[in-house]
């Protein structure tokens, strides 16, 4: 397939390399005007005993920023941060062929309303992944954690694209098609509400959140998220959410969360699309979410400190 990926961050590059390995033609649309670039992937795979084994580094060459390649693309994958989706769509919208499917994959929720009004004719898919990757510099990608990816239709015209889940599964397993993509998006939102703000505020690796000092706050975050998810129609319990969060903390113990990295690098975070989205939905349902509100305020304060410098 001819595929254009918007956003050469860690997750975009990881998928690009894995899809290129399956002989798909990957073209990038980035914020630079470079016509090509190379990436070294430090990949890993899971062995039968569920251990992660590193692979030898592999070099990938990609073309980029070619308008004709966008027009020829059979699939557009948007992996920019949630707050960049609107601008990314504006940049390429006039060049995407009619009926080309557009897949959106980012942490958090809340871009759906804009996407719906902007892309009236195109099949739209959302995706969420628990694969973890880290970009230590512009030329390297480290695949640091394995986990499932879910794909699903966001509008009626995307219903016929379930075969894309198999294509993604071949590239980077496991990947499945979900009949209600909002469910795995909410599950991932719950994980991000718990791990991201705390790791950014306390400047720690995810694994440190397994220590007893974080037990009460994580439990309350999960209670609040579960109440909002139930009001949205999902049959979750706070206990089950906490178990899932604990599993992810363990599986990504050595990772620095994306929000930690954003704060560390003095970049804008995705807090408004993670905890901020939860708070917005909680208001709609009349549910109090004091712990999440506190975490949202703390992260906003950290972001503000960047601006003051
Ligand atoms: O945003 C992140 O860093 C990741 O989604 C997760 C799962 C919290 C692991 O670090």
UniProtKB/TrEMBL annotation:
Cited SUPFAM superfamilies: 6-phosphogluconate dehydrogenase C-terminal domain-like (SSF48179), NAD(P)-binding Rossmann-fold domains (SSF51735)
Main EC class the enzyme belongs to: oxidoreductase
Domain Ketopantoate reductase C-terminal: 180-302
Keywords for this protein: NADP, Oxidoreductase, Pantothenate biosynthesis
UniProt KW Oxidoreductase keyword: yes
InterPro entries in the cross-refs: 6-PGluconate_DH-like_C_sf (IPR008927), 6PGD_dom2 (IPR013328), ApbA (IPR003710), Ketopantoate_reductase (IPR050838), KPA_reductase (IPR013752), KPR_N (IPR013332), NAD(P)-bd_dom_sf (IPR036291)
Keyword check for NADP: yes
Top-level taxon in the UniProt lineage: Bacteria
A GO CC term assigned to this protein in UniProt: cytoplasm
Annotated ranges, domain Ketopantoate reductase N-terminal: 3-155
Catalytic activity of the protein: (R)-pantoate + NADP(+) = 2-dehydropantoate + NADPH + H(+)
Enzyme Commission number(s): 1.1.1.169
Pathways involved: Cofactor biosynthesis; (R)-pantothenate biosynthesis; (R)-pantoate from 3-methyl-2-oxobutanoate: step 2/2
Record-level Gene Ontology MF annotations: 2-dehydropantoate 2-reductase activity; NADP binding
GO biological process: pantothenate biosynthetic process
Protein family (similarity comment): Belongs to the ketopantoate reductase family.
Its job: Catalyzes the NADPH-dependent reduction of ketopantoate into pantoic acid.
Protein name, entry field: 2-dehydropantoate 2-reductase
